[in-house]
Amino acid sequence: MHRLGIVNFINTAPLLIPFLEMGALDQWEIEEGSPAMLNRKLKAGQIHAGLISSFSYGQHFKDYFLLGDYCISATGTVGSVLLFSRKPIYDLFSSRIVLTNQSETSINLLFIILEYFNGFQPRYVSGTFHDFESDSQADAYLAIGDEALRLNRARGNFFTYDLASIWYETTSLPFVFAVWAVRKDSGLRDSPALEILKARLDQSYQKGAMRLDEIAGKVCSRIPMPQGECLSYLKGIEYDLSSLKIRGLTNFFRLLMQMGKIAAIPEVIEI
Q1: In the 8-state DSSP scheme, what is residue 71?
Q2: Considering its fold, how many domains does the chain have in total?
Q3: Which of the listed residues 139, 154, 171 is the one where a domain comes to its end?
Q4: How far apart are CA 103 and CA 142, in angstroms?
Q5: Is the pTM of this model over 0.90?
Q6: Which of 62, 117, 208, 211 is most buried, taking the most CB atoms under 10 A from its CB?
Q7: pLDDT band per the 50, 70, 90 thresholds, residue 43
Q8: Is residue 112 packed enough to be buried (19+ CB in 10 Å), middle (13-18) or exposed (0-12)?
């Protein structure tokens, strides 16, 4: 039995809800978790395939194949990768910034925006929004996923910055937050089990796209947020790993290598 990891944020609901409604998947067990958790489990071989952060693929691409055609991405505003700041972003040169522990891609995107694009030299600590609120020396907090959506609805007097929007304004490219990766040593390449998975993903994405309004109604209470706002958010999430998305992904890796965050620009190998 093979193990598949899926992130259970609102932004994966258009995939996950139809996927689970179709019942058990032959030869596969499903595990839900945060992006950071699935990164660790795929690297450790505790799952064989999964939706992992782009940064994790960049670190370990020699061990993985990409499951082509699929990703989590945005062209411009994403709405759920947000920097909440007590001061304007241009005043964060040497600020103390609290980083969520739920993501690696978004953290490294923030590094690029602050350090590479702007030449800033912030100090970073890992923590929660509560840590940020109680730390008078901290100027900003990076949140992702459902937490970012919740905080954005009750953010008070913070300046709020959408990192995907800043990336697009600077590069004119979409940003790929997560990819579907398969361990090379899993024996899944060209296997019936992988074809079963790809077929289920195709069906799930197609069904989800046709049911966005209904799915928004099912998941909006998690935040909570009005169904209409949830629908608008889901419409901004893109799931296709197009050639333009691969350009954006490759540019992300190029900048990470220039900053010394990864050793080489990964090959984008699809199966």
Answers
A1: E
A2: 2
A3: 171
A4: 10
A5: yes
A6: 208
A7: very high
A8: buried
